[in-house]
Amino acid sequence: MDNFPSSSGTRSVGQRLIDVLAASDAVRASVAYAQALGVAVNVAVVDVSGVQVAFLRMPGAPLHSIDIAIDKAYTAASFGLATSQWHKVLQEHSPAVREGLVLRPRFVAFGGGLPILENGLRIGGIGVSGGSEQEDEAIAQAGLKAIGLA
């Protein structure tokens, strides 16, 4: 029975993962915040292994932003780092790493993706795309705040 959504926002299948109920709440809260800002976005939540758990596309959100939102969530979940931090982090590495990492499929190095942490453990990632980098990150943060993980 441990694979069913729990009231804590996570489920366990050998590791802690964000559950579908918490992921759905996060994307809905993100969309509500985006509506208040007047921005049409796509919002994705993935679990810690990068598997998509929830997604919403607002009417009028850019089509290319669908994959970008998903990839922001994937990048944040896989590294445990906000995608907005990558520009600074990459400056600390060799040119080969700086140039090579950004060419990796699904890697996003600009704002809008946040890791989802519960009690210091990474359980997933949320990605938003369609606004400015700052708007996307604030919208993602609103989703995390709504589920008590901001």
Describe the structure.
- InterPro entries: GlcG_carb_metab_protein, PduO/GlcC-like, PduO/GlcC-like_sf.
- It holds the Pfam family HbpS-like.
- The chain is of the alpha+beta class.
- The protein has one domain (19-146): Beta-Lactamase.
- It is built from five helices and six strands; from the N terminus they run ββαββαααββα.
- It has helices at 20-37, 64-79, 86-91, 95-101, 133-146, and strands at 10-12, 16-18, 42-47, 52-57, 113-118, 121-129.
- The protein has a four-stranded antiparallel beta sheet with strand order 4-3-6-5.
- Strand 3 (42-47) and strand 4 (52-57) form a beta hairpin.
- The radius of gyration is 15 Å and the shape is globular.
- The chain starts with 9 loop residues before the first strand and ends with a helix.
Write out key terms for the chains shown.
PduO/GlcC-like, two-stranded antiparallel sheet, 5 helices, Beta-Lactamase, 150 residues, single chain
List the helices and strands and how they pair.
Layout: E1 10-12, E2 16-18, H1 20-37, E3 42-47, E4 52-57, H2 64-79, H3 86-91, H4 95-101, E5 113-118, E6 121-129, H5 133-146
Antiparallel strand pairs: 1-2, 3-4, 3-6, 5-6
Helix pairs in contact: 1-5
The percent of residues in helical segments reads 40-55%
Topology order in helix (H) and strand (E) letters: EEHEEHHHEEH
**Multimer state:** single chain
Residue-averaged pLDDT = 92
- CATH top level class name: Alpha Beta
Shape: globular
Strand percentage: 15-25%
Low-confidence stretches: 1-7
Sheet with most strands:
4 strands, antiparallel
Termini Cα gap: 28 Å
Q: Please work out how many helical segments DSSP would assign.
A: 5
Pfam families: HbpS-like (PF03928)
InterPro entries: GlcG_carb_metab_protein, PduO/GlcC-like, PduO/GlcC-like_sf
